[in-house]
Known about the structure:
mainly alpha
Amino acid sequence: MARSKKSEHPLSMRLPVGxxxxxxRAAGIRGRSRTxxxxxxxxRAAEDVLMERSIIRMSAEGFSAFARAxxxxxxxxxxxVKVLERKAPWE
Length: 91
C-alpha cells in the first residue's frame, strides 16, 4: 500500500519563555499567529543564507553590460529625493 506524501511536516522547538513572549508580541503586532510568524522568519533567514551562497552566471557580454551599468553615473529619483528632504516627524 503506497503512502501519500505530506505537503506539510511538523517542526518542534524548545525555547525560553522570554523568547516565546517576544515572538508572541511581534506576531501580534503583525497580526499573525506564532506559527505563521516563526515560519515566515525562518524561511526568510534560510533564503538569505542561500542567496549569500548563490553563484550568478552570465555571459561575457552580459557581464560587460552589467559592469557598464554600475559604473555609469546615477540620476536622482524625484520621488525619493522628496521623501528624503521631508522633515522627520520627531524633529
